[in-house]
Amino acid sequence: MTDFFETLTFYFSYPFVRYALLVGLLIALCSSLLGVTLVLKRFSFIGDGLSHVAFGALAISGVLGISNEMIVVLPITVVSAILLLMTGQNTKIKGDAAIALISVGALAIGYLLLSTFSSSANISGDVCSTLFGGTSILTLSSVDVWICIIMSILVIGAFLLLYNKIFSVTFDETFACATGTRASVYNLIIAVITAIIIVLAMNLVGSLLISALIICPALSAMRIFGSFRRVIISSAVISLVCAFTGIIIAVLTGAPVGPTIVAANIAVFVISCIVGKICGRKRLI
Amino acid sequence: MCTQLTCENVSLGYEGNVITKNLNFSINRGDYLCVVGENGSGKSTLIKTLLQLKSPISGKIKFGDGLLQREIGYLPQQTELQKDFPASAMEIVLSGCLSRCGMRPFYNRKEKIIAHNNMKKLGICNLKNKCYRNLSGGQQQRVLLARALCATQKMLLLDEPVTGLDPRASLEMYELVAKMGREDGITIIMVSHDISAAVKYASHILHLGQEQLFFGKKENYLKSDIYRAFMSPSGGYEND
Lengths: 285, 240
Prior knowledge:
The complex is a heterodimer of chains A (285) and B (240).
Chain A: H1 2-12, H2 15-40, H3 44-64, H4 70-89, H5 95-117, H6 123-132, H7 142-161, H8 163-171, H9 173-178, H10 183-205, H11 210-224, H12 228-253, H13 257-279
Chain B: E1 3-14, E2 17-28, E3 32-37, H1 43-50, E4 58-63, E5 72-75, H2 80-83, H3 89-95, H4 98-101, H5 109-121, H6 137-151, E6 155-159, H7 167-184, E7 187-191, H8 195-201, E8 204-208, E9 212-217, H9 218-223, H10 225-231
Parallel strand pairs in B: 3-7, 3-8, 5-6, 6-7
Antiparallel strand pairs in B: 1-2, 1-4, 8-9
Helix pairs in contact in B: 3-6, 5-6, 6-7
């Protein structure tokens, strides 16, 4: 046991491990907050589609040789989020089909660009680490860390200030509109925040696994709790615990960070399902 | 008489396709108007138009007696999404106060009292911390009604309020709505399939078809041909 703590202390003497933990926890917190709304609004797939768009954008910035990918990836993802949301509202175009089209399209074009133009010797390794996270969380520069901290503060601040409005728009958009709340504005804000979180989370878990980070804590919390506030709080706690455990295990065992965090989330989800069944939803509020 | 809402030659529809036309009616404070008609006669379009979620194809809708558009309390039909929604009754009722907040991010004490009073009025104080998805259909409707009351004290717009309720809960719901109209002077507009309840509780009836088939006092409606045709088995209307 002392060995365990010694190894841990040893690793945490390196700044990049501390950065990884800090950024990981911030991303986990942000994604779990928004996750509840996205799941309840049936927007889970938008998150998935956007993460693929972010992958495509990353490929473009790689081909163009831009060192700080954030400059390219963030605007492209935000614009796609807004567009996806617009088509989602338009009943003439099937929202889910549009998302599927955009996500596979971005994935294919991203890989095509990388394999055609990339100068890297290990393309499949690069792609794999972009898709599944790999070690990018451990190689963050201090600029990346600062961008992540500022963005997280913005996301958390926006969520807290708009909490009641987000609740109203999530629960009943028609009623919110009818009583003078401009639901479309808040939907737009939700979409933009989602895009920001996805771009941030690509570093942590890779673009294929982002959805898990957004959806799992919310679903676990919803198994057990029955009030919006409790679901939000417990979802944040679950996500933080899973991210912390995942990163520690990954650092100690050398496993990839992203999949370890997602595995922890899935484990918690299974446990929540069982707890929810045993306690019965009726007695818990 | 204080006219709160007037429709003048209003036509309703989607993207140029007129569903119903020549709507001319007015609603005074304290009226209880029931909107009846077949499926597809534009009842739900009328609701969306009154709530200004969409605009009429032609004609004018005027608000009077100090009624603002956003002061119409709305009781929508339940959506699939809401049936599994993790929220406490109090959270939902409070969300009716949202438009009172303006830019303020959180509810203040006054709004919490309003929410509490409305729950008391509907006899659901004991459900305050209960999860919405675990409530019975009738209780859920009361929660949504309390939310609508938080948004307004002037006019309630109810869209098929007894859908999915058992006969007892339906009766309670009708009595509750009628009581609010009587005691608090709230104007009520109810869209309903249930014509027997409509003629029992309403003071006025609006019957929609391709155009406005009837508008007027209930007593006159009961004597009208359109009512007899609607109620006769050979009319074939009553099953919708």
